[in-house]
Specification:
By secondary structure, the chain is α/β, with parallel strands linked by helices. The chain has one domain: 3-Layer(aba) Sandwich (Rossmann fold). Helices cover 32% and strands 22% of the residues. The protein is built from four helices and seven strands, in the order E-H-E-H-E-H-H-E-E-E-E. The protein has a seven-stranded mixed β-sheet, with helices on both faces. The radius of gyration is 14 Å and the shape is globular.
């Protein structure tokens, strides 16, 4: 059973909620963690330690890319932790026109700017060239 961690900026919450539902449909046995998920952060949790524990327990780290997430020190710290732990990292473009970040040069990008149910969602390389 796969364990998936989703990192995102709060402005992308609606997208992440759709992504969560889509992942549940695609991988019904997977455990999917993000801070607002049913098993996410709870009142009284040491939120940063809980996030680090969830990243450590994950098999896959999904980074939802938007200008806000790539500028977020918390999203960057989560990404750095996933890299340090050598997690499989998947980057998903949530919106159009994202600032390019060199940290993602070696990771294929999944273009979902048209929504999580977009049947034409494609992998792209840095520079947004089709795979």
């Amino acid at each position: 059973m796969a364990r998936i961690f989703i990192s995102y900026s709060r402005v992308d919450l609606a997208f992440v909620e759709q992504l969560y539902k889509r992942l549940q449909q695609m991988r019904p046995t997977a455990t999917i963690w993000y801070d607002k998920a049913p098993h996410g952060l709870l009142g009284g949790d040491n939120w940063w330690n809980t996030i680090l524990d969830a990243i450590a327990a994950s098999d896959v780290f999904i980074y939802v890319l938007s200008n806000e997430s790539v500028q977020s020190k918390y999203c960057q710290a989560e990404f750095d932790e996933a890299r340090r732990l050598v997690k499989q990292i998947i980057t998903i473009q949530a919106r159009d026109k994202i600032e390019r970040i060199d940290d993602f040069d070696d990771i294929q990008l999944i273009d979902m700017k048209n929504g999580t149910n977009d049947g034409d969602a494609t992998c792209r390389r840095r520079g947004y060239t089709p795979c």
